[in-house]
Amino acid sequence: MTVPSEVAARTTPHTVKRGASSPRDRHRTRTNAPRGRTSFWPYLLVAPTVLLIGAVLGYPVVRNVVMSFQEFGLRELVQGAPAFVGLANYRELFADHVFWEVVVRTLAFTAVNVVLIMVLSTLVALMLARLGRVLRVAVMTGLVVVWAMPVIAATTVWQWLFQSRFGVVNWVLVQLGLDQFQDYSWLANGSATFALIVVLVVWQSVPFAALTLYAGLTTVPAELFEAARIDGAAGWALFRRITFPVLRSLFGLIASLEVIWVFKCFVQIWAISEGGPNDATTTLPVYAYQVAQTLNRYDLAGAVSVITVVVLTILLLVYFRQSLRQETNR
Mean pLDDT, to the nearest integer, of 16-32? Predict the structure, then answer.
């Protein structure tokens, strides 16, 4: 008995009707199809935020750059109509040896802080990865509390801790037999004040970096460590061969953020020492504030701010270029 053609077509699995297309062909057709007009809705939705950021951040930056090329003192602030003086403010700064001392001190302050932050944060992150659940939660809670503490409040607490007569730090040191710290004034010595501010900045910065690095460590496949241990690697070798290469980009991102944060650090320095004693803790942001408030030289302060941004940008560009070169050579 002859099977009707439509029944054969319905029962034969490999028979495809002429002119019909398979799901793969239809997907390929949709993929290769020309796209329609570009939708402007995403840009319209983002536009208010971009305009607000430009108004809040862009205008002050542009105004500051313009001011650095003007003669802008207290009289111009009241009467207006400042005169353009070209590069006179920059020439005045570059001829001042105090300015160059501040630049060197700022670079040294940034380098010391960033190195300490990265080393301590890495150690804390590795420690968190090895702790049990209860201890890990306790340590992470402490880190979050430190991170969430307002800068001024934390700085005030540190001032109390290092107070000369009633500070806890001096009392503990004296109890340990270090009698030279009896009524020792930390803020009267430039090196001691510099070290105090470094410890404060590092203490405030480690939580963010440590928690971020720990989050990165949780993404490293355990199979990589097991294979390395089978090959005989342990301790520092595991970090050098597995952890750091896998998280290189994350380390670079955190280091860049810390450079920016430390380089523009102002609140801690001003609240503790106002740049003293004898300008031992005066960095570029503090120097710009001193010039503006003490000398009423807003034009000179604007020039210092512009130079600060330029120096910071150069440092970051050099680092990013080196990072891209390493990624390309890998």
Answer: 48
